[in-house]
Amino acid sequence: MILGYETIISKIVDATEISRQDIESKIEQKLKDLQDLISREGAAHIIANELNVKLFDATNRSLKIAQIQPGLNSVNIISKVINVNEVRTFQKENRQGRIGSLLVGDETGTIRLVIWDEKLIDLLKEIKQEDILKINNAYSKQNNNFRELHLGSKSQIIINPENESIASVKLTNTSNRKQIKDLVASDFVEVFGTIVQVFEPKYYNSCSVCNKKTIQQGDLFNCPEHGSVPPKQTPILNIFFDDGTGNIRAVLFRDQAAKLILNKEGFEDIKKEVLGKQLILKGKVNNNEMFNRIELVVNNIEEPKPEDMIAEMQNDV
Ligand SMILES: [Zn+2]
């Protein structure tokens, strides 16, 4: 966005209460210092910067959802609510927190809003489907393949602002989602479904440095790369995953298995934790020649997103 000279001056005056005359003489001086190598607007920009005046405030940066790139600060959008999700609580170290989330869209696409600020989370109770939201001062992130807009303590939500509307929402799906019945070997996909069966986890001794499987020789555990290492008990978990179109055996190693098992010990407790869980599994479809079947080797698991819930609701209809 390009701002005119006059706009910049008046923004500096508003923000600093320095007189217009003084600002203009600073700009003149800057032009002289830089030997007229920059424009008057350019010099005004520099002065604003030196005086800590933000020229692009909230109201100047309203983006369409399709324009949101990861890593932007102070993003503003006008959007329509597609779905408000239940607020989740989480435990991180000694801290308990809440996360709110909703799916919103505009004429160019959809995006997930993730809300960290407690006051804004409280505001979620007043938000319903079809509401128009003006979001100010959010920041954008990339989470797996999805862009997200995060709202913290500096962010703002205005519900149904006057004179704002969204004609129609373009529903975008940016993932390589497939149904289980359509999977073929060497696909790299994500599937959304439910864990319907779980097998007792197996553990092996891995290298505590690189996580590769170690070879046991007497009392010693040898990593091909790191030599004799203290071994680490590492789980492998096999499950059956069903999405309503079919089911597939999925194999989870190390971190992914640990994410599911959490700290549960004992097969009964693990079953209780894992069975019936709705998840997104991402990974590669492998052909297991020994058993003549395909399997999903999982390299990431995720909690379902609002998009998934909507898709599922539509499937049910
Ligand atoms: Zn190693």
Offer a quick outline of the entry.
The chain has helices spanning 5-16, 20-33, 40-50, 118-123, 254-261, 267-274, 306-316, and strands spanning 62-63, 75-84, 88-92, 95-106, 109-115, 132-143, 146-151, 156-159, 188-198, 202-207, 215-217, 220-223, 227-228, 231-242, 247-253, 278-288, 293-302. It has seven helices and 17 strands. The protein folds into three domains: 5-50, no CATH class; 60-159, Nucleic acid-binding proteins (OB fold (Dihydrolipoamide Acetyltransferase, E2P)); 180-316, Nucleic acid-binding proteins (OB fold (Dihydrolipoamide Acetyltransferase, E2P)).
Architecture overview:
The chain has 3 domains: 5-50, no CATH class; 60-159, Nucleic acid-binding proteins (OB fold (Dihydrolipoamide Acetyltransferase, E2P), Beta Barrel), CATH 2.40.50; 180-316, OB fold (Dihydrolipoamide Acetyltransferase, E2P). The protein has helices at 5-16, 20-33, 40-50, 118-123, 254-261, 267-274, 306-316; strands at 62-63, 75-84, 88-92, 95-106, 109-115, 132-143, 146-151, 156-159, 188-198, 202-207, 215-217, 220-223, 227-228, 231-242, 247-253, 278-288, 293-302. The protein has 317 residues and is of the alpha+beta class. α1 (5-16) packs parallel to α3 and α2 (20-33) crosses α3 (40-50). The longest helix has 14 residues, at 20-33. It binds zinc ion (ZN). Zinc ion is lined by residues 207, 209-210, 212, 223, 225-226.
